[in-house]
Structure formats: structure tokens, C-alpha cells
Amino acid sequence: MKKWNLDRLYLGFDDPKYQEDLEGLDKIILEINSQVLDFQNYDQKLKKLLRYLNNDISYSNLIRKLYSFASLTESVDSTNQQAVKMTNVLRRKFTELTKVNTIFEKWLANYPDLDQDIHSDMFLKEHEFYLHEIKNNAKHMLPDEMELMIAKLKQTGSSAWGTLQSLLTSTLEVEYNGKIITLSEVRNLADDADPAVRKSAYEAELKAYKKIEKSSAAALNSIKGEVNILSQARGFENPLDQALYNSRMSKQTLIAMQDAVKDYYDVFRSYLKRKAKLLGHANGLPFYDLYAPIGEVNKRFTIEEANEYVLKNFKTFSEPLYEMAQKAFRDNWVDYTPRPGKRGGAFCSNIHPIKESRVMTNFTGAFGDMITLSHELGHAYHGEVIFKESLLNSSYTMPVAETASTFCETIVNKAALKDATSKAEKIFLLESSIQSYTAVVIDIMSRFIFEKKVFEGREKTVFDASELNEIMLSAQKETYGDGLDQAYLHPYMWVCKPHYYSGGLSYYNFPYTFGLLFAKGLYSLYLKDKDKFVANYDQLLAATGKNTVEDTAKLMNIDVTKKDFWVSSLELLKEDIEQFLEFTK
Questions:
Q1: By 3-state DSSP, what share of the chain in percent is helix, strand and coil, each rounded to 5?
Q2: Coil, helix or strand for 176?
Q3: How far, in Å, CA of 392 to CA of 386, rounded?
Q4: Nearest to 570 by CA among 441, 427, 411, 477
Q5: Interval 10-22: pLDDT, tens
Q6: How far from chain centre, in Å, is Cα 245?
Q7: What is the pLDDT of residue 297?
Q8: What's the CA dihedral at 224, 225, 230, 232 to 10 degrees?
Q9: Model's pTM, two decimal places?
Q10: Domains of the chain (ranges plus CATH)?
């Protein structure tokens, strides 16, 4: 069991530095709140603006350090009461600047000759995109007192519901083979070599959800209801429009991408039906065999072997990527293995104040776990590049957030396939990649359809668990079609995916599809001219915090608003599927 080291943040909640920074946070909050009077007029406006931005940087550095330590601690130990309490304390502190931030944003929206002042000062010029984004955001702001009340109510509303659901899933006891295991552990059996294990784990997982389905449904209904009310109050037509706005992505881009995806449903279904046939299923692939290994499956990886494999393949791309991964392994940035109280899945947290990232996985030694590791380290590399930018230019949106991670997946997958020495191993590696494509294209589309229907339905009703199950099953049938056995779907995918349970982050699904297909398009450019691409790649990643999705893509001469680009990326996935079909005739 290998855990991450958070000492670069703090030695613990009783670390004097932690207490010192908490006190410093309170001081900077007082300092920023004292600026409320500044924003009553535009006398000495440039001085006021510079003061506010510099204070904002100081505040952001402190709050990110403090909150990162608390939330990272809680993510691997949901029963740690100090961590739970401190995340709640810090969330409340987020609200203490709501009033002054609201007043500032409205003040900036009417700032006389803003562009003139921006171009007169190097610091402001560096933050031009950030300032214009704040100015545009002002039209979605509510009255000052209402914004403050909303921020406070969220702490006992959507944030609390999200925390509850995380606690429910991380502590859920799953009865499997006469013993109690965690939800992460039973879900990790989905790629076990033994078909009996896969099926029994699936059945145990579904049975366990019965214990928390009502509470999870209450959490989901409450969060989606809150988001519906607030998104409309802010002038958005619906939460999807708000999610796109927050993603700095146009609806035209989303429609182009999803239209292309729909055209390729049958391509993915042909893969699923072939896999079903290989595993002896006559009516399509049962959900419990979606991640069943095909081909050579004897190889398992220790943590050390997985690290070496990732390093070897990252080195084929660039020295900076290789050195970043070396540093991550050497300095214990990664928390690898599942354990009680640790949340499921995987994530990477970029911690700008210390110019480092932390990666959480639930590693068991499967090839897919190593791919997950490379994916999350891709996020860490994105962090390495963005750390060179101002803290105020470091917040990139969800669609481009998946670019570097998916690109790193592709590097490892392609290199592994090239190194394979037997047909069985090639089939295994190829099919592992296609598994991932299917999850990110087909399953993600089902999740998008589910979330959209829930948002629309919550305008009129409250869903019970059985109704949510039916919506999920309907979404899976729409995307997977006859590729899956209709008798063995997964009605509880809405319970086990934490992405649905955020009041401030709706539709955390389509960005994964964007990330995969955008990264595939980038990878094809890389193959055409490797040296030129590597030289420009960091520039692309650095731009993600201060550009729209469309303008970021233009740096590589890509137009993501056109269906043609997405088709070209999907064709690359189709080539892998056709190769798999040929290998498995």
C-alpha cells in the first residue's frame, strides 16, 4: 500500500504552519473585504484594480494550499473527522468574499476605458483574458445580498449533499464471497480474468446499491433542483448552457462533436458484438463483461513495474514529460491502492502554490490501472506547464482539462502495442484501448443523455431511485444499442459516478469525449511532425487557462466547431476497432 506524501503542503492539521496560514487567510479576507468602499466610484481606478488583483492572488494561494490539504486528506480517508470539518470550514470561508467579489465584478463590468488601462500596465495585460471574462460574468450575477445568501446556503445544500453521497459510496459495505469489501474493490473486479468473478462482482455491486439508493436519489434530486433554479436565475436557458459557458465552449462545438459520435455508434457496436461472441454471449455483451480482458492477460504489474513502464513510454515523447513523471514517483505524489474510506476512481489535483500535483488512483495491478496512472500523470504534466503562468491564468476548463491526460494515455497505449511480441498480447492491448474509447465515447454519451433528462425532469418532478434507474437504462439502450445484452445493463451508474453530485460542476461527461477526440487529433499531428509538435505542445497547454476552447484549438490550426474534425478523430478510433475485428476473425 503506497500512499502520497502531503508534507510539502503541511505536516498535519496541528502543524503550526497550517494554523499560521489559517490566520493569514482570515487577514487577507479582511483586507479584501475592506475594498468594498473602493468600488463605489472610479477614482484612482487603476490603483484599486491592481490592489484587488494582488490581494486575490494572495488569497488564492492560501486557500488553495489549505483546502488542498484538507480535501486530499479526506479523499483517501472519508472518516477523518479533522479533514471533514476543515473542508467545511474552508468552504464557508469561500463565501466570506462573495459580497465584495460580486461588487467588484459589477464595478469591473462598468469600468471606464478598461482596455486602455490594460494596455498601459504589463500586469494587467498578462491578465487581459481573465479581466474580460470577469466582465462578461457580471451579466449573470444576482444582487449582492442574494449572491452572499446563495453561497452560504450551498454549504448546507448542494455541497452537503455531495459530501453525503461521497461518504455513502466510500463507506458502502459490499458483501462478496462471504466477506465485506469496499465499492472500489468490487468494481475493480470488472476486469478479472475469471468470468465467474466478473459476474458475481457485478451482482454483488448492484445488490449493495440497494442500501444507499434512496439517500443517493435524495442527494441527486436536491443538487439538480438547486442547479436548475440558480442557472435560470442567472439568465441561462438551462444548466447545459451554463456548463458550456463555464467550459468556455460553444454549443456549436458540442453539437458538431456529438453529431459525429452518433454517426459512429454502429462502429462501436460491432466491437461490442465481436467481444460478446469471443466470450460466448449470444445476445450482445453483458455489462459485467464490458471490461473483461481479451487476449493475453497473465501479466500483472507491481507499482514499481507500472512506474517504469510509464517512464519508458513518456520518454519517447519528450524529456520534460519523462522528468515530471520521475519527480512524481520520486517525491511520492501518487496514492495508489484502494482501502476502506478511500473514494473510488482516480483524479489529479494541480496545486499551484507549491508547483506540484497529487494523483489518486485505485491501483490493483491491471494494465488498465497503469493506463489510468498515465492519464492522471498527463493532468500533472498539464499542471507543470500551467504552473509557469500566473495563478489567475491557471484555471483551465473541463474540455481542455482532459487533453494532456488523454494524450498521455495514447502515448503509452501506442508504445505498448508496438512493443507487443505476440498476437494475443496485441489483441489484449488493442482491446484495452478500445474498451477505454467505448467508455469515453459511448458510455459518456449515455451519461450525458441521463443527466439532461434528469435536469429536464426536475423542472416538474422529483425522481425516486427506480425512476432514475429507468432513465439510466434508457440512456444505455440508446447509445450501446444491440452491442449490450439488454438483460444485463447497469441501472445504478448514476450512484457510483461522483460527477453527478456537484452543484457547481454540471455535465462533467462531454469534456471526456472532447478530451479523447481532441487528443487523438493532436496525436495525428504529432505523428506528422514530431519535433514541431513537441515544440508547440506546451504553448497549447499554457493557453488553456486564458482562452476559449475554440481559440485554444486554433493554435494548432484545428476548427472544433466543424464536424469534419471530430469525424477525422473518430476515424482513428475506427481504425483500431477494424484492426481488432481483423485480429479476432
A1: 70, 5, 25
A2: strand
A3: 11
A4: 441
A5: 999 999 999 999 9
A6: 17
A7: 55
A8: 100
A9: 0.84
A10: 16-156 (1.20.140.70), 303-424+511-548 (no CATH)
